[in-house]
Design brief:
4-stranded parallel beta sheet; Rossmann fold; 9 strands; 5-stranded mixed beta sheet; alpha/beta
């Protein structure tokens, strides 16, 4: 039985993760962390001092993730991070999001020009999204994209070409009715390839991926960046 503590347990995704852990026969929800819920622990440190946990699942936000991770590691507790708004520390825990990362990396080995479009609702404060950031950084590990006109040679508003994230141009749209979608468009002469991940309107896509990570992390050593690294 793997004992799990969920930070952000009352959040949009954390609530669904906690329910899935409780429903699983091989997992046990031993604690939840939420600053707004008096029935939960107010901090990760407090929770991990009070209960014995094997894995901390963090679905909070970028401002507190680092402290939560360090609090867990100091107590020899494994960590699964699914929070958004991070840069290199962000780990996407949607299975289909992980397949986006893997497929895009494969495509970048054969197509040398691409850009990323990041869609989210109008109220999402971080831009780009964690998935788009991770995607750009993963592509940078393959090679830099080809640009016909370098960004510093643009005539007009340079911002119109998006932000340069790890060498890739990323365009963040923040509009009503979107949830979270990430698209990478590859292009060659006379043809294009688009790979897109749409998360949908519920946290359901993140549940299966998080449970996979929870079950895998006790057998891992060191830092595993990206759920796709656990898909083999």
């Amino acid at each position: 039985m793997i004992r799990v503590c969920v930070a952000g347990v009352t959040g949009w995704t954390g609530r669904a993760i906690a329910a899935a852990v409780e429903a699983a026969s091989d997992l046990e929800l031993v604690a939840g962390v939420s600053r707004s819920d008096p029935a939960s622990y107010s901090s990760v440190s407090e929770a991990l001092e009070a209960v014995s946990a094997d894995v901390l699942v963090d679905f909070t936000h970028a401002a507190v993730v680092r402290g939560n991770v360090l609090a867990a590691l100091e107590r020899s507790v494994n960590v699964v991070v699914g929070s958004s708004g991070l840069s290199a520390a962000n780990y996407d825990v949607s299975l289909t999001g992980a397949l986006l990362l893997r497929s895009a990396g494969d495509a970048a080995r054969h197509l040398d020009a691409w850009e990323v479009i990041d869609y989210a609702n109008a109220g999402k404060p971080d831009a780009p999204s964690g998935t788009a950031q991770e995607l750009a950084e993963r592509l940078d590990g393959v090679r830099p994209p080809a640009l016909r006109v370098p960004i510093d040679e643009i005539l007009g508003a340079r911002e119109a070409r998006g932000a340069t994230i790890a060498g890739t141009q990323v365009h963040s749209l923040r509009l009503p009715s979107f949830v979270v979608s990430t698209e990478v468009v590859f292009a060659a002469e006379g043809e294009r390839l688009s790979i897109r991940h749409d998360a949908g309107e519920t946290p359901a896509p993140y549940v299966a991926g998080t449970l996979l990570a929870i079950r895998a992390v006790p057998n891992q050593v060191g830092l595993i960046r990206g759920l796709d690294q656990l898909l083999d």
